[in-house]
Amino acid sequence: MIKNIYPLLIAVMAMFVSCQKADLVPDPGTEATLGSITAKFTSGPNTGQEATRYAIPVDAENTILIPIPWFFPESANDETDVYMSAMKLEAALANNASISPALGIVDLTKENTYTLTGADGSKRQITITGVRTKSKKSELTFFSIEDLGVTGLIDQNAKTVSLITVEDLSNVNVTVTVSPHASVVESLTGMNLNSPTSITVLAHDGISKTVYQVQKSAPPKIPYGFRSGSQNQAFNLKLEDLGYSNSAKPSLAASGNFVAISAGDGNAPKYYNRSTGNYVGMMTLGAAKGDGAITSDAKGNILLIDQAAVGGTVKIYKTSAMTAAPAPFITWTNTSGFPVGSRLSVNGDLNSKAVIIASCQGTSGAGSKSFVRWTVTGGVAGNAEVVDANGIPYWGEGINGGKMSSRSDDVNDGSFVSYYDGGNDNLYYLDKNGAKALTLGPQTSGNAWGINNNLTDAKTFNNAKYMVLYCPSHFPYWGINSELYVYDVSAMGNFSGNVNSTNALVFASGYGQLGANVAASGDVLIAPTADGYKMQVFTIDFSVGNFASYEFDCVDK
Question: How far apart are CA 212 and CA 215, in angstroms?
């Protein structure tokens, strides 16, 4: 049964039914002769999809008015009026009940008369018609002051927006997103948000509304990690819609209100609103070549590395904003014996203490299990260390190479790496010297042979150390999803079992195919927000063809 069916205004009902009462009320009981009516599209891009399933009350009167959404899908601009004259109706009837004539393709712009026969043989005439209904949803889903890099923390239960900032907000322009086809009543330009202010979201129906109180504040935090149940998928976008067709070495970085995607093809990375995925602009490359990886630390500082062959010069640049030209940060002659530049990670704060790791790439002639590590102290990078991992197999070239990440901003805390190994796709924890210390086995589903378990990242958020493993699928068209795992690695006592079955695992999700399947290449990035209230996990995946984000918060509710 479908609950919470839209109530209908009497004035609207009067337009469609002159003498009889139309019922749009909650679920029927289990004894209803006619339980529900489902309306499906028979033409257009949504052919065969369910427009609505309307639950009929037990005591329904003789005219049944089926509510059809004004737009379908709800977030689109495709109006449903052109489909109303030919909707396929299906009825859920009690055992031994019947409806005559049989339902089929029906014109819901007209009144259609049927005979409903109950299980006891009783008969009554009913009339079925339809009405397009505008959405009553009026949620504020995103609030930002782009110029200041301030993102509002929205509490949907309390209907509040908290602005965690000390900036002057006396004259600011605000960017919001709201429920599909809803609108904001107040002007969002030149707002004075130094004092508590109301924002009213008006639903598409022009009647339903929600009022949010916006104010500078700092909500209480839980003492540790993210709040259980706070996880929310912020967006899941098709790469083709963003203009991406292929990339063997994509990478991600976040700073301020933005997240950037580098295709590693020599072009400047594009950057997007980190809460909505909306395109904003092109990142400034400066002297960087744009052919290597990008990444970012816990404070929004970005690193860009140029691709370097064996014996070539590794150049790493640093910037604190998408539009600020990156400055030279590290220059080193590549003595690792392998190409460097397609995998890069950093944990900590590049302005004080951090660990940078560049994973060495395998080649067609030799596998690799080496990485280059720099320790940052007082904002200055130390000498490069080439570390050969011990006790683990070699990783291959290209998309099968592993992306390593440091457990914390201290090299003594070790590092993580995983990669495709023909189904033996373990996740390894290495000590400070690169020796294998602990291992998580591959997926217990038995699908590891079809999943590229090769992308990690790690950051500290609200006193907890988190590590993510992202596993692009090699075969999404066979129903093998890409998989995301988030682990609490503050203490390593729970780090045992399998990647999908361990006490260290605190969140897991999967992505089915959304766009074109190109290759199992991708990246993953943990990015705490500047205010310290949210941890975002971004993924890009050229296997399922998506760019996506999950958000977690630490607000004490």
Answer: 10
Residue 413 corresponds to which amino acid? D
Q: Chain-wide mean pLDDT for the chain?
A: 91
Strands 140-145 and 150-151: antiparallel
The answer to whether the CB of 270 falls within 8 A of the CB of 285 is no
Cβ neighbours for 6, distance < 8 A, ≥ 6 positions apart: 24, 67, 133, 136
Give dist(CA 339, CA 169) in Å, integer: 48
> CA dist 277 to 158, 274, 312, 540, Å?
26, 6, 36, 12
The helix or strand, by DSSP H or E, that contains position 323, with its residue range, turns out to be none
Task: Extract the tokens encoding 425.
Answer: 């796709």
Does the pTM exceed 0.70?
Answer: yes
**Spatial CB neighbours of 252, under 8 Å, sequence gap ≥ 6:** 259, 260, 261, 262, 294, 295, 296, 523, 524, 525, 538, 539, 540
User: Rounded to an integer, what distance in angstroms lies between the CA atom of residue 58 and that of residue 118?
Assistant: 12
CA distance 464 to 39: 49
Distance CA 237, CA 240 (A): 9
Whether the predicted pLDDT of 366 surpasses 60: yes
State pLDDT tens for residues 172-228: 999 999 999 999 999 999 999 999 999 999 999 999 999 999 999 888 999 999 999
Question: Would you state the pLDDT for residue 28?
Answer: 39
